[in-house]
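[step 3/7] fold_predict: job queued, chain A
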Amino acid sequence: MAKRCIFCGKEFGLFGGCLIQCGDSDLSVCSACYDQLSPLSPKERAVKALATGRAPNPQELQAWLKQDEAWLEEERSRLERARQAISTDKTCLRCGGPMERYGDKRFHLHPTVQDILSPVWLEVEVIRCARCGKAEFYIPQPPDLPEIKDNPPDLRPLTRRNPSPGQILAGMGANPPGKNNNQIKV
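[step 4/7] structure written:
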């Protein structure tokens, strides 16, 4: 029994045709139409099959196309929400395009032998231009400042309990540095 190609209408024998996916179903086509239509997507082939009027199940193809369009619309809105979530109010310094959040990155600073036990990390926020791809680094929050004491141990005031090196030498009978050492006591 001969089959008919749904695209060109040509009849072909039992082994002269091929199956091609149109929408969510496989339809019989001749080998010439298969070669011509195989690069197209299943959605494009379904639209062409409906346009010929020879599709064996047009209601199913139309329902599939509506379902696919609804899925695409949902996907577009999801992508738009995702783009809004990563967008920033900054513009690219190079091209003026919108900047988008790209994520956080940790950099190891001063990788030396001493840092093995206590490494120093810098956390930055990476912002990327959506148009040209230029990236900028921002420190998301100021670092914790070390506590500064009023009288650090190195700069303690000179008192009787904390004598200067010159006072120590003078107490030992030596002249402090800067004094005239040429005096002789008789």
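[step 5/7] annotate
The longest strand covers residues 98-109.
The radius of gyration is 41 Å.
exit 0
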